[in-house]
Design brief:
30% helix
Length: 234
């Protein structure tokens, strides 16, 4: 059986004024459906670049990326957008909520192409907000919510299309430790429900929640250990 996600010799080279630097340098790895993978490494190791390439937001300079048996390089721009919408949910450190929209309206944004009534979209948004612990706060603006609540709205928005894959880039980076643990509890629950989770984090304390830990160094895979994560809890 083919791996759920596969990268083969992926490199990402950035160039400017005759100089170049490799954000990723020949990365190869496979991820099975249902894994919870934490990606760590120092700043500049290539973590966020790896996540954006996995999500089809960037095209690597060389190498191949496939997900669910689909070679992402073979998709047109529209096809890639459709694939991302159906397959991948993104959660970012900075939330990326629209400040002039309510929590409900922010969750409804990805539903705009769907052939659903406004009422049906609002009902789905409310159900998702309730599922992440925000019942009764649907009408609040981001400025009226705490950082943890804003991240919950962002997670609800990422779940609109019920994607099998969640990509999270430092989702607790702007949160205090207690709130961060609550957000990590949400990810653990989503993983247990069957989602494949890939999370970039600077905090190695997050490793014990994952089933696998990948550490990048200078754009390369320095460690790939499926046994490291469980022992962090000891």
């Amino acid at each position: 059986m083919d791996p759920f996600i596969h990268l083969e010799n992926v490199s990402m080279i950035y160039g400017n004024n005759g100089t170049s630097a490799a954000a990723l340098d020949g990365v190869s790895l496979s991820i099975d459906a249902g894994e919870y993978v934490v990606i760590t490494g120092e700043s500049g190791a290539g973590k966020s670049t790896l996540l954006t390439i996995l999500g089809g937001l960037q095209v690597p300079s060389s190498g191949a990326v496939s997900m669910r048996g689909v070679d992402l390089s073979m998709l047109s721009a529209d096809g890639l957008a459709d694939f991302r919408r159906e397959t991948i949910g993104f959660i970012f450190q900075a939330y990326h909520l629209l400040p002039y929209l309510s929590a409900r309206e922010n969750v409804m944004v990805p539903m705009s192409p769907l052939r659903m009534s406004g009422r049906a979209k609002a009902d789905r948004a409310d159900a998702l907000l309730s599922s992440v612990g925000l019942p009764g706060k649907e009408d609040r603006l981001p400025s009226e919510l705490s950082g943890g609540e804003c991240q919950r709205v962002a997670i609800a928005r990422a779940l609109v299309h019920d994607p099998p894959v969640l990509l999270a880039d430092e989702p607790t980076g702007n949160l205090d430790s207690t709130t961060g643990e609550q957000i990590l509890d949400l990810f653990s629950g989503l993983h247990k429900s069957g989602k494949t989770v890939l999370m970039v984090t600077h905090n190695r304390a997050n490793l014990f929640r994952a089933s696998r830990a990948i550490r990048l160094r200078d754009g390369r895979v320095a460690e790939d250990d499926p046994f490291l994560a469980p022992y962090q809890a000891l």
